[in-house]
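Input.
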Amino acid sequence: MAESVRYNLGILNGWSCGLKKYLQSYAFLFSIAGLIILLDQWTKYLVRSNLEFTEAWSPWEWLAPYARIVHWKNTGAAFGMLQNFNLVFAGLAVVISLAIIYYYPRVDKSEWPLRIALAMQMGGALGNLVDRITQGYVTDFISVGRFAVFNIADASISVGVAVLVVGVWLKDRQEAKKARSAAASTAAEPVQEEHPQVEEQTPLE
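Output.
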């Protein structure tokens, strides 16, 4: 009876620890993604409420040729690519978000670039998904030079990719440094020479 109770308590403790790890991981994921979605939707609401379609605004006239806010509609991917595929990209955003939710708890806490990158990409994907479902298109408004018009969600996805690339580069650099240090320490160790053992001969009587 006592062994059965201890066994059940062990299972319950293991399940509790696993659940705690999942909740901690998801708390970070949904917090970052949620903030991005809120910021993205708030800025889009301001644009739709204050600017007519194709209308542009800039705080200073001299800045307008270089950067401005313009009300634009996008039925394609980020930065205006592949127009008229709204439903396709809506479904893709759902698949990507579900994949991130499934994979995220398996990412170690030390892999912070990957954790941040996945949270930013999920927030960006869901931010544009809200537009696709409620508007039938994505509201873009950030215009820089002759670059395609984009929004906060697009920027979040792109920055997330950049964070991931930098994180992988830093990790590879650290591992290479550790490997060089290990090789140097191994080379610096003194080599002990082995001397052959001479058998003592018993004198003949």
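Residues 94 and 126 are 8 Å apart (CA to CA).
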